[in-house]
């Protein structure tokens, strides 16, 4: 069934229906645009939320960052940021695949519909024009036929009139005959116009308009089909990213399962363990018996309090559970020396008054009770020192070890740079055309100064670490490694040299070269190179080559301008990277 057959007389209905269909497409496009804006705003708010709660660079070294609960929270924040990215992708795909595509298609449909309606209007105007011609010819025929009838009647009347002359009768007959002839012509013209109109009308209702209506029907069906595809895309767009969104949600779930409360507790212990021993009980000091103060002090000789555990920091006024004491040096405390008592038979000191025992107990209560009354007074702000003496013993050892590792890495970097500069200077001396050795003097001098400075810092921090009782095997191994490489001479805390001998620094570079060659004799080539220039290879560790010679690449340039190669006969050595073209194996 088609519109041209069934709806041949419903032009207005078809026009209204097609217009309503296009308006529905516009309405759907507007709906999707608003949904896109919602998705974009949602994604923007999620990104802002993730940015707000994400860890800043300056906070990455905070102690709580090592807690699994905190790491899981950061994982959730990152997953939400990825989730926001998927919402942005949904908005982008909705805009591209539905809004833009449907808008473009809608413009094409409007133009096509306009063309069909113009064709229908043109056909209708042509039919109306033919009908007007028919109507005019009909009216003329009617008018002329009436005139012919009147002329015939007049001629007949004149012929019967006895008073009329023969000329009058003849004239009336001629007039009637002329009017009849004109009426006959109008009749023929009317018949021709009627036939023409009927033909055009048949063409209009059975051919032209059904064809136009069928085209409009096809347009509307294509519009409905495209709209249905838009409906499906509305769902498929989100379905397409659902697997990734599911992974984000799985990541959040995994972050929750990764939380380990026991591990967090161990991290808190590791980060905050002071290494102090718990203080022992205070002994009663009976001043009424005239006990010598020296014997009282001796009763506190064992490490019972934090002052005995702080080592060299005994002079600092420190207490584990309180802020720094503001009592003067003359005030009696459990860990300070009180004023010497007066002689046994002499008068009592004015400071003690009449009851020295009551005064002593009172002073002890003043100083001891506030210190152990509450854990809330635990926080303090000691002065930060270079040797980390402001930290508890355990934390101090960890910080010193961490600092030593940083210095070792920096020192190793300076040693590598010194070796590279030494090789480059040696090559410049052997081959002046490659460069001026004097140009490297400032860099070599600066590197040497840096090495000496780092040596001094390393010794200083090792001494402090030895005092803290935290020197480990790993650190001794690193120290011996530097000794073996000729970087610097290290000593044990007791002043003895390391077990391994330390070679002369001037020979360290070549000794390392020899060690490398011994360790990597069977290293597989990683590519080939072709010499562009001659190279004599006069210095130790280098190898000569001729222009055009092909060598196997054993080790790439590490940034010092040298590449390690091997000949077919097994000879290995370093050559300038700029002297060859290198093709590495893929």
UniProtKB/TrEMBL annotation:
GO terms for molecular function: lipid binding. One of its GO terms (biological process) is signal transduction. Residues 1-264 form the F-BAR domain. Residues 488-500 have a biased composition (Basic and acidic residues). GO terms for cellular component: cell cortex; cytoskeleton; lysosome; plasma membrane. Keywords: Cell membrane, Coiled coil, Cytoplasm, Cytoskeleton, Endocytosis, Lipid-binding, Lysosome, Membrane, SH3 domain. PROSITE patterns: F_BAR (PS51741), REM_1 (PS51860), SH3 (PS50002). It is found in: Cell membrane; Cytoplasm, Cell cortex; Cytoplasm, Cytoskeleton; Lysosome. It comes from the Eukaryota. Belongs to the FNBP1 family. This is Thyroid hormone receptor interactor 10a.
